[in-house]
Amino acid sequence: xxxxxxxxxxxxxxxxxxxxxxxxxxxxxxxxxxxxxxxxxxxxxxxxxxxxxxxxxxxxxxxxxxxxxxxxxxxxxxxxxxxxxxxxxxxxxxxxxxxxxxxxxxxxxxxxxxxxxxxxxxxxxxxxxxxxxxxxxxxxxxxxxxxxxxxxxxxxxxxxxxxxxxxxxxxxxxxxxxxxxxxxxxxxxxxxxxxxxxxxxxx
Length: 203
Hints:
The radius of gyration is 17 Å and the shape is globular. By secondary structure, it is of the alpha+beta class. The protein contains 3 helices and 15 strands. The strands form 4 sheets. It has a 7-stranded antiparallel sheet with strand order 8-9-10-14-13-12-11, sandwiched between helices.
């Protein structure tokens, strides 16, 4: 697995089509402080939607067949059962440093994956926000994995939405990950999230 230049994976193990992510090894005190600061952002879940008011975004949680788990460096991480596919949202904020271009952010995302083969790469729009989508295969500890990633940014933060699976199980949960990605929306920073009414629409 991977996190954009801030940490390197201690290991990712794939056994019989199941992927498990182990602890991340952080590189340097500055990185640790940065992750601590971003983790303190005001965030909560309401009506099945993860809301981060301070950084200004919302995204629906993955539910049926997905278990949320703690992954250091990730704001949200889910593991599918059965199958072991992993979906995650990682947010990194640079503070006063300028956010690099999307193509550089996307390249950094795949540090640690060997023998990479890019299967598709395209610019897309996620609810009005420019993003890069990359589909690739590679090797982790002599095991083939397939990855779908979306990388986007605003003025302060970069956002990685990532799905990792063994090639033979990749398609099984891909539609759910795509709905997860399409539900990600940037909002005004500091604005209060309002749950939409579930009443009947006007006739």
